[in-house]
Amino acid sequence: MPLLFVFIIVVVIVAIYARRNAATRNCRWRQDRAGSKGALMKYNCVTCGVEAFRANGKPDRCLSKLNRPGL
Ligand SMILES: [Zn+2]
Question: Cα(20) to centroid of ligand 1, in Å?
């Protein structure tokens, strides 16, 4: 039985790791032309709802962690 127990723990750890990875990779930035200011284009992250202004393309990562105290 101990083997089954270890197996369950591994599955849980992998699941947590995979979910955390997915949280940062699933960020989809959508351009919001209405909210843009001149050369600064506004981007909305569909996944976590973060807004960002960029002049040189969409952000390459999720910015939601900037608003949260350490993880
Ligand atoms: Zn995001």
Answer: 12
Q: How far is the CA of 26 from the centre of ligand 1 (A)?
A: 7
CB atoms closer than 10 angstroms to residue 31? 14
Terminal Cα distance for the chain, rounded: 34
Q: For the chain, 71 residues long, give each residue's pLDDT as a single digit of tens.
A: 789 999 999 999 888 877 766 555 678 889 998 988 888 999 998 888 888 899 988 888 777 766 555 54
The residue extents of the domains of the chain are 18-56
54 CA → ligand 1 middle, Å: 15
Instruction: Name the token pair of 55.
Output: 């002049």
